[in-house]
Amino acid sequence: MHKHDQTIAVDAAVLTVSDSRTKENDASGSLIQNLLTKHGHSTIAYSIMKDEQSLISRTVTGWCENRSIQAIIVTGGTGFSPRDITYEAVSRLFDKEMNGFGELFRSLSYDEIGPKAMFSRAAAGSLDGRAIYLLPGSENAVKLGMEKLILPTIQHFIEELNRL
Q1: What is the pLDDT of residues 107-151, one digit of tens each?
Q2: How distant, in Å, are the alpha carbons of 23, 71, 99, 114, 139 from that of 91?
């Protein structure tokens, strides 16, 4: 098994997609940043934006042009309401999609919330050498995704993307 360097500090960007959240009440975005810091990583860009597909796509592609950003974590807009367009805005940009991320996220969510877990369109993939994660907007979903999936593997993902 390929071992990864767990001492690597990852520089991340955090995007909250919501029509109602502000920096004062963005509990999910704050939780992502706090968990990154707690695990030795840093947030070097943070933004909140409305559920507008072109704005989300432009932000993610713009962050991928910033060579210091290694990972992008997006929270919100992954459900099925008419305004939930994060998956459409970002997944079409992926160079590669990590299908197992969404599958594992929904499986772990099922253990907590039952069959409603299938409504989540949590996803992960890569774009221009960056790790990108799409999480639901609830604090419980963010905590689950960060603690069980992202934080245990983010360094490995970054190493894989930079391996020749």
Answers
A1: 999 999 999 999 999 999 999 999 999 999 999 999 999 999 999
A2: 25, 15, 11, 25, 22
Sheet holding 42-49, edge to edge: 42-49, 11-17, 71-75, 130-135, 123-127, 96-97
Return the CATH number of the domain spanning residue range 11-162. 3.40.980.10
Q: How far apart are CA 19 and CA 152, in angstroms?
A: 31
- What angle (nearest 5°) sits at the alpha carbon of residue 150, between those of residues 74 and 142? 50
Task: Give CA–CA dist 26/53, Å, rounded.
Answer: 20
- Give CA–CA dist 48/149, Å, rounded: 23
Domain residue extents for the chain: 11-162
Full-model pTM: 0.95
Residues 5 and 155 sit within 8 Å (Cβ to Cβ)? yes
